[in-house]
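User: I'm new to structure prediction. If I give you an amino acid sequence, what do you actually give back? Let's try with this one:
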Amino acid sequence: MLESMRENFLLVGLISLLLNLFGCSSNPVITPADRSLSPKQTATASTLPNQPMQWGGVVIGITNLAQSSEVEILAYPLDEEGRPMRESASIGRFIASQPGYLEAADYASGRMVTATGRISTIRKDLVGEAEYEFPVMLCEQLALWPKQRESRSKPRIRFGFGASSGGSSYGSIGIGFGL
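Assistant: Good question. You get back a string of structure tokens that encode the predicted 3D arrangement of the chain. For your 179 residues, that looks like this:
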């Protein structure tokens, strides 16, 4: 009887752990592509890359056109999952062109995105009063990352209690603490 209770406890604990690890993820699934050239390197290259590229960063602005939407992005290196690493130095700017309409509120300034697609052209435009050369990516995938939660600087303490009765001679009580 006690052995059966232990097995059930371990099974419930394992299921709970897996649900906590995988069940709450809302990160986009990013299809890998070439990251060898940065937007800045691509803008000054003699030829455009032939293969799909993958860049990501922070939305600077969005323009909705008649048939497509263009998102100006300040690019950062990507981590293994394809998430922009904002703590790194910028690697340039680019324009992600997506067919159809994108909601400007969803792609607001400061949101993180990862774009995958082919570079169609280099467009000269202005950043402030300075001339800038933007690679224009025709997106095959434009992934919007969830908004960052505010970090909590104060530690939290949680308590959990459990009890079991396995008959007249079996029983236990457990107390757990977590930060």
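You can read the tokens as a compact description of the fold. Here is one thing that stands out. The longest helix spans residues 2-22.
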